[in-house]
Amino acid sequence: MFLLRPEYTHLRSKGRPVRRLLFLQMFPVLVLGLGQGTGWTADPVADKTVQQALHTLLLTADNRGPQSVGLALRRYQTAKALRDDSDTSYTYAIVLLRLTKTKEALAQLAQATEKQHVSAAQAQVALLMSQKQWTVATEHIEKYSDWLRDDNPRWKDDEARDQFAEWIGRAISVGQIVGANASEVERFNRLDQRVRGLMPLTRREAYIRGFDAVLQEEEGLANTTEVVQTEEEKKRDEAIAAEKNRLKNEQDKTKGDRENLIQTAEEWKKTLDNKLTEFGKQLGLMEKEWNTLDQRRQTLERSILLAQQEQQLLFNRYEALSSNNGNTNRNIPNPRQQTQLQQIDRELGTRQQQILQYQQDRNRTMTSMNQQYQQAQVVIAQRQNLVADYERATGQLVQKDESLKKWNDRLQKKEKDVVDGAKGKVVAVQTLDQRRKSVGTYLIMDWEAERQRLLLATQPD
Predict the structure, then answer these.
(1) Could you give the count of Cα atoms lying within 13 Å of 57 in the half-sphere of its Cβ?
(2) pLDDT digits (tens, 9 = 90+) for 252-277
(3) pLDDT, tens digit, for every residue of 131-140?
(4) Cα angle vertex 12, ends 449, 21, to 5°?
(5) Phi, psi at 23, each rounded to 5°
(6) End-to-end distance of the chain based on CA atoms, in angstroms?
């Protein structure tokens, strides 16, 4: 979510203040505000009319139905006729974002930034970075950092300048952290050098503060990930130790039972036959259960592969549609293209959830197979001990039956799969790793929270 703070204001040289709503979040990242661009009109009656028009526009997103986009456009046109400024464009952009019209919203944000609307610039850069449009994002960041020059009269005070300089530092630092490859990271490294060199000395400290804050946040997440990983490994080791202890107790019990047996050769033979039959039944049931689990594992692995292939196809479709849209800041995709992009984005999320669910099911299946493996080891050990005792007592050799050989061969083949399955990262660690490489972790975007703040700011008296 956005962290909205009263002291974060947009560049303006005049205009009365507007009401503020404070939202607290973990990271002080993106600060937005209405009435911080061109300033409110000096006419109280006209000012009230404009606020009412903007308030009505913001209410459009209360019901995100099929007619909402058209209604939002009409209400925007009404507000624009009353006052055509960056605040109006920014308000419309927030509504479009709530209606999942990202491309159209970016166009409105671009209009607002032409008049140095700080909130619009921050939202625009955060969106571009979340879409991995690194080149365009760096160009905008460099352009907006020039707003901080000392001879720019549009800032209301030094505090506002410092806050924007701090945000610029955050954005560039985020680019270095989440870059997917070396070229992307190097692009933000070069941008950092240029911006630091051109940054006014009076803003350098604020810029560095924002830049370093992101590094500290990422380090905190890394430490948290390490702690979670350690805790999960500890739980897994404890579970394995408990299982081994249980098996040892069962083996000790079997050993004690064997030591108490003093039987004649005939009694041994009868006992042996009965026990072999019992062991055969146990191994048969275990074999059936193993086959069931193994079939489920194979099914889940095929499902994971199929979902990943579908995910890649969806991603390719998304990239193809996006590339057909041209320059994001100048062209607005048609409704059909935008609907397709939204549908693909939802389907991508669904596929990701399916993959995670399949992986969790597979891990649970592998755990059950591991338990079957341990239980089979106990049965086999008991059977072998009984046969050894019989051979020593009667001098007769007992041939290993085919079922025992089958289990030994299968266990040797499957043991590696069981061990590899236990080595995978747990879901909690995977989630933390994803957060560390997500733009939204550091430049948080909650359009609904911003819309609610703007609703309060434009609420009629």
Answers:
(1) 28
(2) 666 666 555 455 667 777 777 888 88
(3) 999 999 999 9
(4) 25
(5) -115, 130
(6) 28
Cα angle for residues 153, 155, 159 (degrees, 5° grid): 135
pTM to 2 decimals? Answer: 0.55
| pLDDT at residue 11 in the model | 41
What does the pLDDT read at residue 258? 54
Token representation of residue 187 = 């692009």
pLDDT (0 to 100) of residue 5: 33
Beta bridge partners of 4: 23
What residues of the chain score a pLDDT lower than 50?
A: 1-42, 261, 327-330, 397-401
> Quick one: tokens of 44?
């109280």
Single-letter amino acid code for the residue at 39: G
Are 142 and 191 in contact, with CB atoms under 8 Å apart?
Answer: yes
Burial class (CB in 10 A: 0-12, 13-18, 19+), 127: buried
Q: What pLDDT, on a 0 to 100 scale, did the predictor assign at position 408?
A: 57
The rounded distance, in Å, linking the Cα atoms of 285 and 34 is 70
